[in-house]
Amino acid sequence: MDLYEAFISSVPAHLRVRMAVRGRYQAYVETEGGAGLASLPLPGKKPYGDAAVCTDWLGRPLRDLAAQLGSDDMALSALGCAAVNAWFNRRESMEALGVTLYPPEIDEGDVFRTLEPECAGKIVSTVGHFHGGEKLAGMRELRVFEREPRPGDYPEWEEDRLIPGSDVVVITGMALTNGTMPHILELCRSSEIVALSGPSVPVSPIWFDYGVTALFGTLCWDISGCRKAARCGVHKDTWKYMGKSVLRK
Fold first, then answer.
1. Which of 15, 53, 137, 200 gets the highest tally of CB atoms within 10 A of its CB?
2. What pLDDT, in 10s, does the model give residues 28-73?
3. What is the DSSP string of 113-131?
4. Which DSSP string corresponds to 128-190?
């Protein structure tokens, strides 16, 4: 089954959209019993304007909004991703799967802190910039791939040549939103560890059927706080209400 269809078809048909917000940095979607976030792709790293409630989606089936994941409209695709996460990234379902959860006040669950012992002597590639990756101790080499590369980064078009030789690959969840995830996962077939990280990641064992071995996602620990922060468009405030989640194959 197509990766996107696997996630979209898993969203129950009876759930409805209670809130949908296109924030300045993130999309936020809320349904019965859960809420989800997804990062907005920001061309030129410039945030969107004031946060906007997507009134056209309120009351409509959550699955219909989830089906926008993969749209050419990046804001709409991010809303679709947030809708998927509103189903998968809820505390009750993650606890049932045995996902390790960390509340906002606990500084654990970081992808690089967790994987550091396994990166020793290895070639590590990251698709997207991640805080802390450059501090990994003992790795053989770090390769960072970016659509808008900074000095020292590799441009996105080098991924086809260099990712297949990587032992460890860490991929931003935004690759699901921008449509590049399926191809990137194809490039990782020989990698020992393939990890996804960030608020856009649906925390589900569905990923394990597509070659992923570790998930470092988030959950709305305090839904009312996340809702308020999303509607205000305050990026940093959102994290005060977000927990972290870790699931490994």
1. 200
2. 999 999 999 999 988 777 888 888 999 999 999 999 999 999 999 9
3. HHHHHHHTTSEEEEES--T
4. S--TTGGG-SS-SEEEEEESSPPTTPEEGGGHHHHGGG-SEEEEETHHHHTT-HHHHHHHTTT
| Cα distance from N-terminal residue to C-terminal residue, the chain | 20
pTM of the model: 0.95
Residue with tokens 């990766």: 3
Q: Name 169's Cβ contacts closer than 8 Å, sequence gap at least 6.
A: 124, 125, 126, 127, 163, 184, 187, 188, 191, 193, 194, 195
Give residue-wise pLDDT tens across range 63-97.
999 999 999 999 999 999 999 999 999 999 999 99
d(CA 235, CA 227): 12
